[in-house]
Amino acid sequence: MFGHIFVYRLKVLLRDKSMIFWTMIFPIALATFFNLAFGGFSSQGTFGTIPVAVVLESDNIAFADTLEKMSTGESPMFKPDFVTPSQADALLSDGKVAGTITVADTMALKVNQSGISQSILKIFLDRYAHTTRTVSRIAAIHPESLQNMDLTPVTFTKDAPITTGNLDMTLNYFYALIAMACFYGSFFGLEEVSLIQANLSRRGARLNMAPVHKLKAFIYSSLASYTILIGEMMVLMAYLIFVLGVNFGSQIGLILVTVFIGSLAGLTFGSFIAALVKGDANMKTGLLIGITMIGSFLSGMMFAEMKYLVQTKFPLLTIINPVNLLADAFYALYFFSTYNRYLLNISGLLIFTVIFALSTYWVIRRRKYASL
């Protein structure tokens, strides 16, 4: 009986174009829009070696030595090009350098736009000017102190990585999207419960009259739905990784495990709503979409800062929102070197899954019909 029901449901569900669209095509289309909208954001805020044009109008050996030190090594800060004033203006207007530095009695910086590179150039020149003025004053007052002077910058902090992954905050949108796609699997759960209720479908009426255990038939059909949902999620993950080039880090095995758990949570959530809420299929579908989209919004899918706003202002919402628990589990895998936060999220998600499943079972087994 299991094989017959399982294969039958697979065939029926694969022919349901509306279901396939909302549970697979729609998340893929949304991921494509996200990639188009946020594709260049991950590179913003980063910089490499800054090209700069230098015009020497005086023989400033000290500045030349300082600039040389800042332009050597494995990751040099500057790439200087010593040119004439006219050449410097041409390079700046063509956008080939971030700015031009004119070395005379005083340093002069010229830029044609604002940005991180230009700000770094200004900070560098301001610090150099401040240091040279300080040394000049000390030399004038206490020249004997120059021989013992150490101008090496003192570092009071220590670099320590806060995460094992790159700080690409656009990943939050994709994590919330995957969580939403998993919980769109609730449509499958809604379908399965509706098909075993005699007052909602003819199939449900026949099933309640047939000598077949209703709960067994429901479990077998749900396994078929879960199989299709997992297949759709694997297609979505493959599209994100291999087509859009989204980098989810090195924890791909645990990410897939999390997708399996999230899909099961989504499926049981749909069956829970279908069993608990009285009304027709349209009302239940609208309720599922509304709850899923609100949960996705609070987890940062539409507005990334909303995730942190909820965590700081309404922390309880992060716990009772299963979509956020799933999205945050992906986040924890990528950004943290320990599994404490990940396991906390997965534990909460599993608790929700058990509650959804047991509640569905309790409602279905107690439902009776006066006539069919």
TrEMBL record:
Compartment annotation: Membrane
Domain ABC-2 type transporter transmembrane: 17-358
Keyword Membrane recorded: yes
Membrane topology: Multi-pass membrane protein
Residue spans crossing the bilayer: 20-38, 173-190, 217-242, 254-277, 283-304, 316-336, 342-364
Pfam families, sorted: ABC2_membrane_3
Family annotation (InterPro entries): ABC-2_transporter, ABC2_TM
Keywords associated with the record: Membrane, Transmembrane, Transmembrane helix
Name of this chain's protein: ABC-2 type transport system permease protein
